Amino acid sequence: MKYPIITLLLSIFSFGQVQKEQLNLMPWPKEIKVNSGNFILNKDFKININGASSDRVYKAASKFLRRLDGRTGTFFNQGFITQNNEFPGANFQISVKNVASLNLNRDESYQLSVSEDKINLTANTDIGAIYGLETLLQLLQNNSKTYYFPLISINDNPRFKWRGLMIDAARRFQPIEVIKRNLDAMAAVKMNVFHWHLVDDQGWRIEMKNLKQLHEKASDGLYYTQEEIKNVVKYASDLGIMVVPEIDVPGHASAILTAFPEIGSTPNFKYSVERNAGIFTPTLDPSNPKTYTILEKIFDEVCPLFPSDIFHIGGDENEGKEWDANPKIQEFKKSKNLKTNHDLQTYFTMKLVPMLKKHHKKLMGWEEIMTNEMSKEAIIHAWKGPNEGKPAGESLAQAAKNGYKTVLSNGFYIDLVLGVENHYLTEPINEKFNLNKSEIENILGGEATMWSELASPLTIDSRIWPRTAAIAERLWSDVSVKDVKDMKRRLSSVSVRLEELGITHLRNKGVILRNISNNQNTSAVEEFSKICEPLKLYSRNKGGTEYQMYSPLTLFADACTPDASDAVLFNDLVNEFTNNKTNETVKSQILEFLKKWKNNHSELVKLNENAPIIGSFLPLSKSLNDISTQLIYKLENNSNYNPELANKLWIECNSKEYADVELGIAESLKKLITFI
Amino acid sequence: MKYPIITLLLSIFSFGQVQKEQLNLMPWPKEIKVNSGNFILNKDFKININGASSDRVYKAASKFLRRLDGRTGTFFNQGFITQNNEFPGANFQISVKNVASLNLNRDESYQLSVSEDKINLTANTDIGAIYGLETLLQLLQNNSKTYYFPLISINDNPRFKWRGLMIDAARRFQPIEVIKRNLDAMAAVKMNVFHWHLVDDQGWRIEMKNLKQLHEKASDGLYYTQEEIKNVVKYASDLGIMVVPEIDVPGHASAILTAFPEIGSTPNFKYSVERNAGIFTPTLDPSNPKTYTILEKIFDEVCPLFPSDIFHIGGDENEGKEWDANPKIQEFKKSKNLKTNHDLQTYFTMKLVPMLKKHHKKLMGWEEIMTNEMSKEAIIHAWKGPNEGKPAGESLAQAAKNGYKTVLSNGFYIDLVLGVENHYLTEPINEKFNLNKSEIENILGGEATMWSELASPLTIDSRIWPRTAAIAERLWSDVSVKDVKDMKRRLSSVSVRLEELGITHLRNKGVILRNISNNQNTSAVEEFSKICEPLKLYSRNKGGTEYQMYSPLTLFADACTPDASDAVLFNDLVNEFTNNKTNETVKSQILEFLKKWKNNHSELVKLNENAPIIGSFLPLSKSLNDISTQLIYKLENNSNYNPELANKLWIECNSKEYADVELGIAESLKKLITFI
């Protein structure tokens, strides 16, 4: 009976040597060295913290234990960590030199080394240490019986200071739990600025003690209390995240003007909270002294809620229509020697600088605030690009050259629902603009922007994640880290791990599918959703009036996401096949897909009998069914193939008329018709 | 070309006549009459409210529109309803006579009538009206193209006044969003009392302004702020739900005594927050005047947070061990002429009555508070039953006979994870106790109790729902409504609809399955979970020390639920087959299941190669695989069938040793071995 036991032991303790290329780290660290051997995880795993006493690290380390426990089912004995040096002999030692202040100049570096019986994490600041914990979690490996960490040494530090995510809680209100889980997810990929878009045409979202009209008249009861805001700011701080609030002025002002119509640019106009999407005319009156009185009161109340030294005042998309139509404002412009509405807006914005300075805050605004007269202390948020008729990266380069600190969002507009590689390959320092060293230093980093016209609490996570992790890597890792295929491999691991932080991008898809399947089996709709993507580049919700901001988003397009999984697979296959038409394996895989979609269509037809919403995308599935029939003929050299019909069917497959989705495989179908 | 158009119209507008028996109403209404014809839903659907102006109805009606919209994708124009009589011509008219006060004597009745072009909902109170809205939502029907309501008239009213759900937020903290979504779900099945268990050995969960030690020392930072509590109370009130808080004294006191050891019954003992599950000794000292000083301060601060006129003081499971061990307390007992510890506890509890009365609150406690000296104004919460060595329903009957108002929880302990029929068939008015009319009137109703030793925010919904909807029906509907099969049919519809309120019982299962499958395909684990149920009757977490209260619950047992879907189907099949062994259809369905489980086992083996947690239940799947082989032999009359081996394998299939689950089909497997 000796042999079986030895074999068992060998099988338990046989670990494949992990290669650096197999690790699921994201963002990829600066320096990383993998050694042979492993640190095996068991119930005695224990953490000891020493150096600077930091609540931030205590909390992160306690949560680290629970997350590791949840993944492995180890049930560690160690509970809440609340003090330094409790277990000097622990096999995981964390050393922190200083407690960081939450500003852009904090040290975020850390060093992590794993040997067979000891893990050491050292950092200059507690924020560096909490990043090291995230890296360690991503290093977890397993065989069939055991969990372990590979022996490794990592030295890490970010490339950019500003790695942000903006969430628009104004258009569609996003409750506190949405914000908190997204903060957790941000920290998991080492992002450090949460930009909270709190005010827009569609709502004012801050409880006001002195100007109650704002939340009472312009929020539909959907706002954050001041206690909740402080609570979020503290929660973010514990994760090393700075919160930058935004109150968008002087345009996007329907909500503010619903509460205070007297400071609007159209006299005696009955402003109301906007229900649709788009760019609207309501604008504050820059010639009215009361505008500034009210704004000062607002800043006096809102600034103290946010310890960050930066305040975002919006400033975008003011087309000046109300100003043009009001002779009094035009007269005022003339009297101040201001040539354009743009100059008038700068006059307005410059009045806000001292209001913010009083609270030790720098002004930040969207790129429209950048004119000759704008203070060089302002931070320019670059957002325009090819969609707005500007070359990509130009505004950012311009701001940097003009001597402004600047943050890039063009290229990181995740609400465009483009494929992840579009964002991943957006490089903030664009060589074509020939920036010098000090100009490059003006580029603080970048920020993913999640506008919420088409994102509700149910769906917003699936619009942000996992894609934003790729943006986080662009902003943290070396410029040379840009292999899209490898990024996608790592992203798939990050995606599932985000669930432990409460991110709902995967789970809520099932909710929508069950809803539209009317409590029938969802597998056919799910299959179809794997090749459908929501309409891109703001082509959904035409004219901004198909849905209102209070309309639920529970339809097929809301269950679909960019980077649809089967579409990605099929497109790869078709590319391979067009490169090598003799590859029979690939050909048979393509045929399998085509047959699956045919079969799936008949399932959808049956499902539709008791689920009307299925009918909204059934014509698209029908077109796919029909073109699949043709392509099967073609690939199987069946004489029934009808190229003319195939071309006609392809046009139908390329339709964007059904259920606000498009087939993510349309181009590949075209290739199969054309190039095979 | 005329005919096709007519056919099309006919097919669009052909509606099957709905029978009363097909409706998915739960709880089933008092009187219901279905007429032929339908009210067809379209974009012009509009609500008008008249009568008493009620914020509660405005909110419920606005949300009704969004929920109906989310199900149908109709995109109604009507947004937020904020005033009476806005659209006098609307096709849905709601009339409310009075705004209800939140007490047990409110009128909860409503009348609903649907004709082809008009819906009328009338109610004496706004709470009745919001119940009517829930009924209407449950009435929604569809064919393949259209949504509609059947023509119907309903007259409804509950049987019991108290239809409660208790959530234990003390053992495992349950964040605000967990509470809010469960309140929404309660309202959807017309439940009206939320009993919030806020204090126990494992934690104090209320922010205190005057006795900060309580939340600072005894909550691990996991507590509700007073603002959050007020917010929940308001949220509940909008749903017609009364909130009854519980501070459990004098036992279950580890948390209180962590903050105030000086009022504990063991002098100089260093009390600490309990991390395990079980019954613990820490108890307040009833002989110490400071105990009452502190309790009075607590009630003075906590009572005003809860407008309800009832306050639950726990009082359960004080075994008096600390009292017995303390001579000073025994002396005190003697000096007060109190014979038993039970009498001493009554002395203690009676001191709380005036403290609560000061705040206009009646005292409620678990049944242990019922002694001869207990005030008849107290409400007795009956919880003991066969599990505790008492006949079912006896304590409730006793309390009613003793002249106490009383609420039943025995039979409604949903944390026992029993099948839903166990709770559904628990009838509060048990004939065997021969209660007279006034005694019956003492029975206020019942309450489902969700203790949280084994329920985290991730899993708690799946322990509460959908089962609690069956309890809600028991407490609302006529005693004659008790067809288990029909209840299960309706429950399946309620289950999916709970998702629109944020209930996570279905979606979070996927989260756990993805976690334990280690980002591989989850279908094999999901299959297996359809026949596995978590260990019942508190047999999981042996000794209360396998897990701690901070341990995550992310393993296979946490993904499993009672009433496992395939187990229910298979058990029905086997019952049918044992009744009629010549039924070949049933036999082949049974064979299909057995073959599926064999195939699934090999999938699990493969999955386990890269997912250690799968290994924890693999032996159970192996036993099922092996017994399936034998049973296939048996059913196919194959001579390889080995009855001895089958019996041996069955013992293994009946094991409760793996991964804290049991096979929900074990009894059926036994029947196949024995009776076929």
Characterization of this structure:
With 676 residues, the first copy, chain A, is an alpha/beta fold. Chain A has three domains: 2-156, Chitobiase/beta-hexosaminidase domain 2-like (Chitobiase, domain 2); 162-508, TIM Barrel (Alpha-Beta Barrel), CATH 3.20.20; 512-674, no CATH class. Chain A contains 25 helices and 18 strands. In chain A, the strands form three sheets. Chain A has an eight-stranded parallel β-barrel, surrounded by five helices. In chain A, helix 4 (176-188) links the parallel strand 8 (162-168) and strand 9. In chain A, helix 19 (523-529) packs across helix 22 (584-608) and helix 21 (565-579) runs parallel beside helix 25. The radius of gyration of chain A is 27 Å and the shape is globular.
Question: Quick recap of the structure?
Answer:
Chains A, B: Residues 23-156 form the Beta-hexosaminidase bacterial type N-terminal domain. Chain A has 676 residues and is α/β, with parallel strands linked by helices.
